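Take one record.
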Amino acid sequence: MQRAWQSCREGLAICRREESARQKALEFSCRAHAIAPTHMQRWIEILQGKHADHVNALFRVESFFGLPLPEQAWWDQLIQSAPFAPVLVKQKTKGKEQKENNEKQTHMTLEQFDHICRAAAAVAGVNKVYVFGANAIIPWLFQMGYQIPLPDFAPSRELDVSVGDEKMDTLIDGSIGELSAFDQTFSVYAHAVSLAAFQAPANWQQRTGKRVEPVSGVEIIVPHPHDLIISKLAAGRPKDFDFAASVARFFPMPHNVLNELVNEFRAAHPQAEAVLRANVEIWKSKILTNANKKG
């Protein structure tokens, strides 16, 4: 079911971006109507722009089983009969070409960072964009005079963005997200996230930095490096520990500040406090081990 859900969502995203793809899927649905009239009629309606609430719900989660039960029931049989085979075959060929281009892309540049933010703001019709994730460190490094890109950080083509509106964030994901025409052209892409999903200390918005995009004047808001460290340690994947260690080398965090931010994190995310504290200890141990090796 998860694989079928992913193919369905990918096909819908392509049809949102490309009118020719939507027409192909619509033609396929019309031809298959005689075989499965109920399901194909529903797909025809979806491709004509109806049932927008259900379609938006599909893009708000990262797994079919993340949908509310009523939505799972609504989509269950539809996903199995999705009319996107002719669309995805063409996309597979594009994907091979894109993979070759993406293999050449290493670290995100400041120009690419700005371009994604400018495009996200244009899609949503706003003048302020929030950026999260590993590449949110780019403006801070630039402000400190470091050359961008900086090889101390792991490469990533993805920029986590939000405009503070879930519907607009979904639109951004579909317009300039992974596998979009934007991605295929520039080898970088936006990944829409919600402000609420950013796990950080309670007062992180009081410490944010701001960059003004030089072409459009869009305000780009990024969390403080120390809040990025806490957020990554809360996630606790191997790459998150590496990122946190790299940030700490450029933006040292005294023990008292670390303790204050962990306590502040507890106020916002009490259910995740234990995991964060455990990961902080692992991280400190890793840093000490690495320091001893270098010594």
